[in-house]
Give the backbone structure.
Amino acid sequence: MDTSHLLSIRDLEARFRTEDSEVTPVRGVTLSVGAGETVALVGESGSGKSVTSLAVMGLLPRPAGRVSGGQILFRRRSGEMVDLVSLPLPELRKLRGSEIAMIFQEPMTSLNPVMTVGEQIAESVRLHMGLSQGAAMRRAEEMLDLVEIPNARHRVYEYPHQMSGGMRQRVMIALAMSCNPSLLIADEPTTALDVTIQAQILALIGRLQRDLGMGVLFITHNLGVVAEIADRVTVMYAGQVVETGSVRDIFRAPRHPYTGALLNCLPARARHREDGRRVVQSIPGSVEFVNGGCSFAPRCTRAADICRTDAIALENEKERSVRCLRWRETFA
Amino acid sequence: MSAAPLLAVEGLTKHFGRTPHIVRAVEDVSFDIAPGEVLGLVGESGSGKSTIGRLILRLIDSTAGAIRFDGQDISRLPERQLKVLRRNAQMIFQDPYASLNPRLRVREIIGEALDAHRLASGARRNERIGELLETVGLQATHMSRFPHEFSGGQRQRIGIARALAVEPKLIVADEPVSALDVSVQAQVINLMQDLRQRFGLAMLFISHDLDVVELMCDRIAVLYLGRVMEIGSSDDISQRPRHPYTRALLAASPKADPDAPKIRRMLTGDIPSPMAPPSGCVFRTRCPAATDECARVVPKLRSASGGHRFACHYDTAHDEEPAAA
Ligand SMILES: Nc1ncnc2c1ncn2[C@@H]1O[C@H](COP(=O)(O)OP(=O)(O)OP(=O)(O)O)[C@@H](O)[C@H]1O
Ligand SMILES: Nc1ncnc2c1ncn2[C@@H]1O[C@H](COP(=O)(O)OP(=O)(O)O)[C@@H](O)[C@H]1O
Ligand code: SF4
Ligand code: SF4
Ligand SMILES: [Mg+2]
Ligand SMILES: [Mg+2]
């Protein structure tokens, strides 16, 4: 096992009990994040990105949801490696918000509407860092400054609803940063924002990541955002990691047929059709969770009979991994 | 442009609310769309894109301005005289979940549009619904299902079939692919390209995604706080932008290419409230080139070349490096 990683998820499986059955929306997630590294987790809606991140945070809704297999290894600041799956809940709570922090797409749902933003940050640092009331408020002000909120001295007294979407996202980031986490999990933090505001927030996360040496797991379905911020990319399809590689390898030389097909769907890769109209390549059909065999087989132009029998393992090779029986024949 | 425009909008203005809380959603907007032409409307949220779409279809009434459809100003006509518009102009919505009545079967959803204009009845009605479903890549047998039995992309196809039912000349598509995953988005984009080719549809295509707009549209209008900042051919806007806001928007859109230059020339600050838009040029509070004059004088649209126009006192195109392609 590679202990140089800050976070190392191995063969994660997560299940939800529904009224009459059990679903397994995450069934083979293996990925890692190093200190000071930004890893993008990409995949289409329902591929299991958020369930993965909730599993890391120990926030799967109970009792319906649970981790049913695999490990989530995290290196504590003390150097000790812990498995978040088996860590007792009080221990995990202590880690959350201090060494591991998370930001979401909609800051409104995680900010308290009846507390000023300053009080919220102060409360969090009092809890995790044992600061006095006065010191905590000063820390809150510093944090708003850190996330480039103009006029921080006065903004600490504002309520979330008095702020724009971009400002609220900055407050969320300030809250997440207030305890100096070593790992930040960001689940679609810019998806609800306009592009000019998104650019500001991406730059801010990038700067904090470099200045503080954090590891960042950045969840998104936007490939443009991936190219902008990631060092490495992990691609999910139907609950499984299907490929991991450096951002350049993934965009320039994808190995999994799904990764290649997804990139070709981008409007920027449109081509002219005979009638002069510009079209993009699309992936026919929709996502299915296949039992036995490759989940992508029903949509894969390269599928063969062997793809439809047994579960397919993730092949690991230094900085790359791919879950496809035929990548050598097709992409060598 | 040679052909008489299908749609000509002049000085279109929409204010919501009343003093002192007036939201200036659309302010003096003019453009036209030729038969078969696709005009894109881009801009950040709140820039007035959806409001313009709804004004054109007379779903809401304008505060001022003219909307000529096939030569006739429809902006003040009472509803009973809007038959021609209702028959020839249709809307496709962003949210394929919210825009279809969950209690109706697909047969009723599409059939309503046929009935409203008495376009098909009896056995011919079902036949036509089946045809429409096949036109958008679904199957005739899907007509007996409910919306929840379809995926997001399939629901968007149903919305498109409903719009096509009346054989319109103009479609207002308000963020039709924004809620879809990129692989599904690709399917719907290609379908819309097929339909344009097949039926010669004109479109007002609303989106905040510049890549999608550039792909779909012949011409593009860039909006900021309800005003047109720049309008021109897709190439003019994406390759030769003249307005500082257009350039900022292009620069802020992440390119799906790890070797492309990282985000450059960032706009600072937030979009001002449309209740209190800045004096003079509405973009001046975020414009890197703003001067005192910009606070005093509203810049008029002026011509760059051909149909390419932009609203800025200065021509800053050559002061900065060209926008990344
Ligand atoms: N509480 C739950 N109970 C049952 N199923 C759930 C629950 N939460 C998530 N799921 C299922 O798990 C799968 C993965 O969901 P997840 O939220 O991780 O997707 P995602 O990749 O984050 O998608 P998106 O891009 O839409 O955010 C989906 O099929 C979803 O319906
Ligand atoms: N019914 C309404 N009442 C009051 N304000 C409205 C209404 N509809 C839209 N607006 C306002 O008009 C402006 C333009 O909105 P909209 O056309 O929806 O923008 P876009 O579609 O570009 O995001 C926004 O400030 C919005 O809040
Ligand atoms: S394993 Fe087979 S079906 Fe799956 S992606 Fe590879 S070639 Fe396609
Ligand atoms: S008129 Fe002035 S503020 Fe407006 S875009 Fe031009 S330079 Fe900028
Ligand atoms: Mg999610
Ligand atoms: Mg809108």
In short: Residues A 257, 294, 296-297, 300, 302-303, 307, 312, 324-326 surround iron/sulfur cluster (ligand 3) (CB under 6 Å). The longest strand of chain B covers residues 23-33. Residues 3 and 240 of chain B are 26 Å apart (CA to CA). Chain B is about 30% helix and 20% strand.
